[in-house]
Amino acid sequence: MREGLHEYLSSESGADAYDAEYYRTGCGPKPYEHNDYWVNFFGSVADALILYLRPQTVLDAGCALGFLVEAFRERGVQAWGIDISQFAIQNVREDMRPYCRVGSLTQPMDGHYDLIACIEVLEHLTPEEASRAIANMTAASDTILFSSTPSDFSEPTHINVRPPIDWLQQFAAVGFSPDLVFDTSVLSPHALLLRKTAPRYRRRDQERT
């Protein structure tokens, strides 16, 4: 563990942990930086979501260096990003910086979006903070693209690693269920596309009509 990192292992006070060294070494075998690999990866994710959902507004909750925001905006979709890391936001591509800001998922989100993406973020939050983040995201959108590693316990900032069923249950508790038609493997094997579920009485009314 990096010296002093234990002091940061509770989200908001831990924002300083997500610095240049973290993005160079803590995001997998490839450095998390503006290169062809990540541009193409997030471009593919954006393409799949646009084809399936046709969103007009997107929020990337935990946007890091803004690659998904960049991909959506280059494809004509209004997109914004928030991230707890000041380092990350300062290193968003210059023309994308007006659309990305420092912010916490534990705080209520302004506006309502056709889609919120939350990619490999909640494992960095305490269980209580993750619950608040889920409440805030599901209040701001009816559709959530979500992923959180079920197996990477070695990264020191991963303080809340859970199997997908646990996240499914948490989203179900606030009225969201998985969309099984969309192929989330474009993002990761454990990703989920979650949609707000209509109340049963509304479904019955729709069936009558």
What is the element layout, followed by pairings?
Layout: H1 20-25, H2 36-53, E1 57-61, H3 67-74, E2 78-83, H4 86-90, E3 100-102, E4 115-119, H5 127-140, E5 143-147, H6 164-172, E6 176-178, E7 192-196, H7 200-208
Parallel strand pairs: 1-2, 1-4, 2-3, 4-5
Antiparallel strand pairs: 5-7, 6-7
Helix pairs in contact: 2-3
Spell out the key features of this protein.
alpha/beta, seven-stranded mixed β-sheet, 7 strands, disordered N terminus, 15% strand
For the record, give the distance between the C-alpha atoms at the N and C termini, rounded to a whole number. 60 Å
Report low-confidence residues grouped into runs of 5 or more: 1-10, 201-206
Put simply, the count of helices is 7
Strand order of the largest sheet: 3-2-1-4-5-7-6
State the helicity in percent bands.
Answer: 25-40%
Rounded average pLDDT? 87
Based on Cα principal axes, name the global outline: globular
Content-based structural category:
alpha/beta
Structure, briefly:
The chain is α/β, with parallel strands linked by helices. The chain is built from seven helices and seven strands. It has helices spanning 20-25, 36-53, 67-74, 86-90, 127-140, 164-172, 200-208, and strands at 57-61, 78-83, 100-102, 115-119, 143-147, 176-178, 192-196.
